[in-house]
Amino acid sequence: MKLLEERIRKDGIVRAGNVLKVDSFLNHQMDIELINEMGKEFKRLFADEQIDRILTVEASGIGIACIVAQYFGVPVVFAKKSQTKNIDGDVYSSKVESFTHGRIYDVMVSKKYIHEGDRVLLIDDFLANGCALLGLLEICEEAKAHVVGAGICVEKGFQQGGDLIRERGIHLESLAIVDAMDSQTGAITFREQ
């Protein structure tokens, strides 16, 4: 998606350790016009799929998931990163390692919100090593829900996550795939799609 690539080139900041900061428009401050266009693109890419709900991980994926859900007319469920008093009863859970935070979370979804046979679209802001998506896949497998695909805003194509998800036969659509980043120059190279 050229619009997203242009915005990353303009406002993205490359940091050491393969970190790409897009918090000025995607996952801290959110440019709703841009995210709305991304929602339309995910609707186009998954238009042939029947979707019952969208699943993401707390917290950065929630904004884009909500916009995408408007186009499909379905609810958003997000896997929480910590047990709260609001989660009662049984939950589906998985361990997820965060690339950005460098820690492991037990993510959970109440069994009230994902059911056997549900057709689920996974949405997230970034795909690096694939841990978050693999955790969401595990939750869906536990629930006996069917994952129709995964939509990612920014995939780091030079890390293993995309390959791991595609090898599992998941229909993966990334709006921008970064093939290389240089923290010294700030240069970002995108994969032609």
TrEMBL record:
Record-given protein name: Xanthine phosphoribosyltransferase
Pfam families: Pribosyltran (PF00156)
Origin: domain of life: Bacteria
GO cellular component assignments: cytoplasm
InterPro entries reported in the protein's UniProt record: PRTase-like (IPR029057), PRTase_dom (IPR000836), Pur/Pyrimidine_PRTase (IPR050118), Xanthine_PRibTrfase (IPR010079)
SUPFAM superfamilies: PRTase-like
Localization, UniProt: Cytoplasm
Domain Phosphoribosyltransferase, residue spans: 23-157
Chain positions recorded as 5-phospho-alpha-D-ribose 1-diphosphate binding sites: 128-132
Enzyme class: transferase
Subunit structure as annotated in this protein's UniProt entry: Homodimer.
Pathway(s) of this molecule: Purine metabolism; XMP biosynthesis via salvage pathway; XMP from xanthine: step 1/1
This enzyme's EC code(s): 2.4.2.22
Family: Belongs to the purine/pyrimidine phosphoribosyltransferase family. Xpt subfamily.
GO biological process: purine ribonucleoside salvage; xanthine metabolic process; XMP salvage
Molecular functions per Gene Ontology: xanthine phosphoribosyltransferase activity
Recorded catalytic activity of this chain's protein: XMP + diphosphate = xanthine + 5-phospho-alpha-D-ribose 1-diphosphate
